[in-house]
């Protein structure tokens, strides 16, 4: 059965995958199960707050209930639940910090507890799309404010005074008229009996009274454990009687096991069993690929045993996938008209009548996430109950998928969320947890499935591969009058539905149809591209090739017309305005309502101007150095980056300085914004310099960090400066985790042009500068 | 029977002598602070100190360290207050944190060998340790801080 037949197996983006019979997951499912005050719909009314978000439209929506998220112990320790997954963004600290701020808890007396996967109880838990702060700033403040009011009411009753006379201040409730004080711990039992205040009645703190938010003074809660080796990642879970497994999977997507000989593997010291693992036909969402598992007393023995297996695979129809030929197919498709997904004016006619046409055809290959912690999961399945421990970005989705895979009720599945040793979108797909569940069920014992780095590269869900072709028509004065952008890439939707050849609205909306330039004649097209491997979300997703193409083209136009890159960029962005996209059928807009999160060119201009000022655009640089700039809106945030590059006479690159300006609206922790942007520069440099997964005979050719290199310290930027735009009073929060990556590569490429006169249109840079 | 001193305690192993030290530490002894990242000595996540030298435990067999002293992140300092650990916290180095045990062990070994490494020496010595989150700027600052007194 094709997995797509059951709509409940899709999460969150159902609306955006154009497949019939798919309806949105019921957000009301299981509502009666909890006694809590559960709001499945958006809780933010227009009256109460200046903005709305798409949070309520996510599966299971938002839950605003302090009894679910906050516990106060008699000793005063406040426990706050983190319901999103920690993969390095700091979310496990930031969200509880918001609650603590609003409830006047003293952070030194707060403990953070990680939620297990239960979206009926906690609301949506998908940690992706740079959504956590954006969707939860207001709900977490409301939860904190509700808890504070319940504590205040309890104290007022105890003292027999009106609640209006008492106030929570730093872990105590104070009656200033009489000088009386009661600690949160002393009030805990009474406060729990208080009725929940209505969400509409909550008065939130004024930003001037913030102790923690926007200050950047609080370190992540796991800092000490991380530096002492005590922090618990997926791979660190150990259960009594646990077996260790590695799996040999089909080397070609959609391939099948024909036969295997376990004899030599069984001779390896420590190997206990060799067994087949059930696989699902491709495409089947996140279901396991199947293969042969080696079960051992430790991971080292399991790996050695797997090396000794003799396996015959049937590669199936994808055995012909080959990257050089596929690139030619994409290029040919990009040179012909395709499905029009945005049309303003008549770009075809304007290109014909233009004085000058500049054509750029840009290529970005497949990329792999290679998070430092490869996929890993522990499962303990007993009868019709399953318990999972895994580093997953989507604990609710994992719970659903484990239940479906084992054929047991969701209520019987517990998903414990460990720390994630990096995610970058790979851990949004829970295939490794499903493998562990299947093996544990069959073995009747707890089992850990460990992916090796080779497995991670060979059997992952790769970033798409794309050709972006842009034709820009200029009139005699050098003004851009026509813009035709064709984007050709296999879609993530192909991992869910066979025969997918067009990109989904959530991909088209990442830098193609939402392109903000003020040009009279625009055509955006999406010619067909079939997929031959599993395509998945990778940090920043389609924004990577789109920003690379669009912002490189800005540099090319500047180059052709002899203008300054930054001036050219501002001219193309045009007047400060809200961009209207009447011709776009389904403007995804990152799931956010357009009136709260429009494309505001004033904000895009501002980050360009800010980075130009702080980054000293136009400064004199030594010979062989160059400056490049790029700006891009993604995840409803606005970012601009300046890269200074130095290229020596052998073509070796160094990056003396990076400056990035970010407008992410109202923010929580500027220190973590800074760390995300520093990291984004390095991930951007990695993909620009080295990132390329290639296929031959249907198989990924790279194996490990030697042939899929990422940036190391000796080649990382010497300094990355981060400039955060102060938010207006009602500016909604927007994404931070992903937006930093897309502008880096085009800023670097524009800088390389400035330094060398060489224009790179195909990533990675590789040896192109050595020629 | 192979005997190894790990964090001051004697451990023994009578299984496959070729078993990588990494898996012996993690799966047999239960010291999970040392991480698996690549299995090929390419990323440094599994770095431990053997005698006074940083080694990649993923390609070092149990037999290779027979009779020697192995220090893992758990044994670097009884309270986790080695200057490198303190500097790491002061600079707020980690993002996901998975590579940091290996980074810290590499940095501690560097400082044993060279108490005041230069900027270039830090960048060179730490280049074997990958951080996919991209914390390099802070790692460098933390090593520098640890070398000048926290």
How would you describe this protein?
The complex is a heterodimer of chains A (771) and B (150). Chain A has 771 residues and is of the alpha+beta class. Chain A folds into three domains: 37-228, Aldehyde Oxidoreductase, domain 4, CATH 3.30.365.10; 234-317 and 375-450, Aldehyde Oxidoreductase, domain 4; 323-368 and 461-756, Aldehyde oxidase/xanthine dehydrogenase, molybdopterin binding domain (Aldehyde Oxidoreductase, domain 4). Chain A has 19 helices and 26 strands. In chain A, the strands form seven sheets. Chain A has a seven-stranded mixed beta sheet, with helices on both faces. The longest helix of chain A has 28 residues, at 132-159. Mean pLDDT of chain A is 93; it is low at 1-48. Chain B is built from five helices and five strands; from the N terminus they run ββαβββαααα. By secondary structure, chain B is α+β, with helices and mostly antiparallel strands. In chain B, strand 1 and strand 2 form a beta hairpin. Classes of the chains: A alpha+beta (771), B alpha+beta (150). Chains A and B meet through helix 6, helix 8 and helix 18 of A and helix 1, helix 2, helix 3, helix 4 and helix 5 of B.
Q: Kindly report the spatial arrangement of strands forming the biggest sheet of chain A.
A: 9-10-7-17-14-15-16
CATH C-level name of the largest domain in chain B: Alpha Beta
Oligomer: heterodimer
Global morphology of chain A: globular
Q: What portion of residues of chain A is helical?
A: 25-40%
Helix content, binned percent of chain B? 25-40%
Instruction: Output the CATH homologous superfamily of the largest domain in chain B.
Output: Beta-grasp domain
Radius of gyration of chain A: 27 Å
Mean pLDDT of chain B: 97
**Total beta-strand segments of chain B:** 5
End-to-end CA span of chain B: 42 Å
Q: Shape of chain B from CA axes? A: globular
Biggest pleated sheet of chain A: 7 strands, mixed
Total count of domains of chain B: 2
State the CATH superfamily name of the largest domain in chain A. Answer: Aldehyde oxidase/xanthine dehydrogenase, molybdopterin binding domain
Q: Which CATH architecture of the largest domain in chain B would you pick?
A: Roll
Number of domains of chain A: 3
Proportion of beta-strand residues of chain B:
5-15%
| CATH topology heading of the largest domain in chain A | Aldehyde Oxidoreductase, domain 4
**Largest sheet of chain B, order of strands side by side?**
2-1-5-3-4
